[in-house]
Amino acid sequence: MTEEKKMLNGQIYDGSEDFLFKARLRAHKLCKQFSNEDEDSPRRLELLEEIFPHHGRNLTISGDLIVDYGTYTYWGDDCYANFNLTILDTCPVNIGNRVFFGPNVSIYTPLHPFVPHERSFYVNDKGVVTDLEYGKPITIKDDCWICGSVTICAGVTIGKGCVIGAGSVVTRNIPDNSFAAGNPARVIKKITSKDSILEKDIFANKEDIERITKIIKEKEKM
Predict the structure, then answer these.
(1) Does the pLDDT at position 57 exceed 80?
(2) Structural domain of residue 212, as residue ranges?
């Protein structure tokens, strides 16, 4: 079994192996180029295609961006990420449709041993300094909003229609249609129709209410 296969299966693997090392180096260089491009540069879209070959339509990322590989992250349609997205995809990261990320979101699939001497560096049989590492996949289902500075840890599944509050650290699964927040994140409430913006006093006038109501009704049909 290759080191890549071990890694993706969540087994102990050697990240210094030549294929993995070169793949990470390639991804890091592409991310640096992407982050340095102007937002209206056509080259920026080309680089995004190279970093994330597995994505649906209308993927928008503001940058800066850093990934371990990019090729093991799978995006649905109509997703958006604000500045400073980090994805360490040593195991698969599956992102559904219409998922939004605030700034400074971090998605971490890697895991390291708790016992210090198991975690420390060692020299492998090729004379390369490396460590013992494994991981677990992460899934974020459709229609989630991951607010700013959220950290999503290895092995987590976030259900459909969830909102994760700013600054949260998600260490366990979150059920569908939940607002979760905290460190570690816990479910605060279920999201219902009472959370609609139409229920809030945020409109300047009657015309705005009518216009936004029409937009929302059209979106419900999509």
Answers:
(1) yes
(2) 193-222
Q: Quick one: 179 and 214 in the same domain?
A: no
What tokens does 213 get? 């109501």
- How far apart CA 191 and CA 196 sit, in angstroms, is 9
Q: In this structure, is the dihedral angle defined by the CA atoms of residues 203, 209, 212 and 216, taken in order, positive or negative?
A: positive
* Per-residue confidence (pLDDT) for residue 219, from 0 to 100: 79
**139 and 111 co-located in one domain:** yes
CA distances from 159 to 36, 108, 124, 193 (A): 34, 17, 40, 18
Active site residue 112: yes
Domain containing residue 176: CATH number:
2.160.10.10
Q: Do you find a cis peptide bond into 64, omega within 30 degrees of 0?
A: yes
Longest Cα–Cα distance of the chain, Å, equals: 72
Per the structure, the count of domains in the chain is 2
**Which candidate in 54, 55, 112, 117 is catalytic?**
112
- Mean predicted confidence (pLDDT) in 48-56: 97
Residues 126 and 208 in one domain: no
pLDDT at 220: 78
| CA atoms of 19 and 163, how far apart (whole Å) | 37
Tokens 């294929």 correspond to 19
Give me the helices (H) in 52-158, please.
Answer: 116-119
Please provide the average confidence, as pLDDT, over all residues in the chain: 96
Q: How far apart are the first and last CA of the chain?
A: 44
Q: Check whether the bond before 184 is cis (ω within 30° of 0).
A: yes
